[in-house]
User: What shape does this take?
Amino acid sequence: MQSSNSSLATTTGLLRDFPLTIGPATFYLQIQVADNLPCEVLLGRPFFTLTQALTIDHGDGTMDIELNDPNTGQKIRVPTREKKNLRRLDF
Assistant: This one.
């Protein structure tokens, strides 16, 4: 897997035709599984190309992503959110 900074990392496996449901749409994706990612799910260029994704930036700093369901043509708007650190380490 190639990162945005051009570094390469080995994946631990592949999930073929994995159903990912977002709102009313289900997308069947080829998902690379990797350890130690900075997020739970990282959607890359193939997903954004498939869904003709657009980002909508708001003045308050929030952002939505608009997806196009390639099967129905339906537009889906999804608000993004900042990842919360689920584990806090106190020293």
Q: What stands out?
A: The chain has a mean pLDDT of 84. DSSP finds one helix and five strands in the chain. The first strand starts at residue 13 and ends at 22.
